[in-house]
Predict the 3D structure of the following.
Amino acid sequence: MGRTTSGVKSTKSESDSLFRALIATAVDGIIVIDSHGAVQVYNAACERLFGYSSREVIGQNIKILMPEPYHGEHDEYLRNFRESGERRIIGIGREVVGRRKDHSTFPMYLSVGESELEGRHLFVGIIRDLTELKAQAASHEGANRLLAQLVASSDDAIISKTLDGIITSWNRAAEHIFGYASSEVIGKSISILIPLDLWPEEERFIEQLRAGRGIEHYETERLHKDGSVVLVSLSVSPICDAKGVVIGASKIARDITEKKRAEARTNMLLSELAHASRLSAMGQMSSALAHELNQPLTAIMNYIKATKRTLASITGFPTARANELIENAAHETLRAGAIIKNLRDFVEKRESKRAFENLNKVIEESIRLGFVGVDDVNVNVRLELDPEIPLVLIDKIQIQQVMTNLIRNGIEAMQLVDRRELSISTTRADGDFVQVTMTDTGPGLSPEVLSRLFQPFITTKEKGMGIGLTICQSIVEAHGGRIWPIEERTVGAGFSFRLPLTEGSDLAA
Ligand code: ADP
């Protein structure tokens, strides 16, 4: 007679072997015990789970697979069941702890069924190892916790909102940047942050998000709680549900107000510097021209005088007319000299705005300016600024110009070498001066350049004007100071300049 096991029609011996095969190949652990706890069946999955072979377990009390307190309580529990029929776990499943042969433990899900076979009470336990699942859950929890910490500690505002613009989360940085506490804004519309005239832009964003596209590093304006404008760089990503439908957006807003202000300040300084630099260059050019033209003009005057004398000695020559012409030529020659002198005076006498300044600060700003527009130069800047130096009475823009000239020369020179170090120090020298020294690790000053360093139009550069150092010198000297190259260097070039302390320097400090 055949009977059915799991829907398979078979003879008794066939079904026995099928049953054995099923038990042997089951992924879950299967254990059968009798009413006293003695193990009857213990499959291959159990061998893997507990580390005991079936030979070691069959016939033993099931409690060897249990840690305390189950180990000590199990016999009592079975007796109780035999006497009262009270079931605790039978028919249901629960999470318990298993004990391996090496006495280590692991979480497992145990479901227990009972049956009667040839008058004997048997219990069948199905065991699933929860180790991996638990580890996954823990790492999930860990990841969530990490994410929460990241969001909380970010300096950028991280905000999430629904597609209707209702704010759903708001981190600490958002509180700081926009001035609203999270309790004030969660559940409210994001529109409180958006200036009226930027609404069309926001609508465009929302359309873009609905289409699943994000926005990256978009610079725009938002409103602080106090009504002031905050400049932000926005990155917005769509948030999708499990089916991939866009249900909201997460926004990261970086406050760039300070950065923009600094940019504006740098631009202003740069344009002032460019202006001053043009004026200085003009002054320097006219000085040089005046110097160069003085000689030929003097020579012309001498020739004119000589011509006048020569003509006067020729009898019968129409001297009156000739004299008139020669006087005109002399007059024009003098005028040419005066024009050049005027131009020079005009440029040199431009209003110099002097004030007591902290030279260390001036230097720090000059470094920023010196590096503007010079990308990826890989220069290491080392500063040794003496915090004790007194204030100096200077035209800040002009001294900045000296510093940026020296810094740029250094950076340019170091393009030719691998080790690029720019060192700048300040110190109080000889009591009455503040001295600045700047050195680089470039190829150094060549002897030909060194001998004529501060003369105009001396350059070794293809596009150089050769007036940078001349301007530096005239500025430093106009401040009552002195500039010189450091000649005893073995590596690179170096320059020092001194500015005098004036009455009030120490008081101003
Ligand atoms: P420019 O930079 O237009 O040439 P400068 O008057 O600033 O004019 O410099 C004059 C010359 O001095 C440069 O052409 C260069 O040969 C030399 N020089 C200036 N600074 C350095 C330096 N740090 N290292 C090497 N050579 C320098």
Remarks:
- The two ends are 113 Å apart (CA to CA).
- The pocket of adenosine-5'-diphosphate is lined by residues 405, 409-410, 413, 440, 442, 444-445, 449, 458-461, 464-469, 493 (CB under 6 Å).
- The CA atoms of residues 112 and 286 lie 105 Å apart.
- Confidence is low (pLDDT under 50) at residues 1-9.
